[in-house]
Amino acid sequence: MSERSLKRLAGVHPRLVALVKEAASLTPVDFMVTEGLRTRERQMALIRAGASRTKNSRHLTGHAVDVAAMVDGQVRWDWPLYPRIAAAFKAAAARQGTAIVWGGDWPTLRDGPHFELDRKAFP
Description:
Layout: H1 3-7, H2 14-26, E1 31-35, H3 40-48, E2 64-71, E3 74-76, H4 81-96, E4 100-102, E5 114-117
Antiparallel strand pairs: 1-2, 2-3, 2-5, 4-5
EC number: 3.4.-.-
GO molecular function, one term: peptidase activity
Enzyme class: hydrolase
């Protein structure tokens, strides 16, 4: 895990930090953390830009992270990479007993880079 990714985990719930670190050791697709804890101002800017649709993002409380796939040192957004990363997150979550939600499993507005602690277990 890069120093930059570790810095982006500042303020993120410790259970999610542990999950990200284990997923990084399990995944066949390298990834970097692009965002963890967000300010309300940043969230509103993302809504205005069309990159988010909610004012109640789990990022605001440190219960979510976004990642980006890295291939040959370059960020890649190709969809097939993200289910492979998600499999590592889900395996780590099962091993740690941490309930998570992957944005790629959402029925609408699928968000492959997004992982969050399940609201039922982590309100």
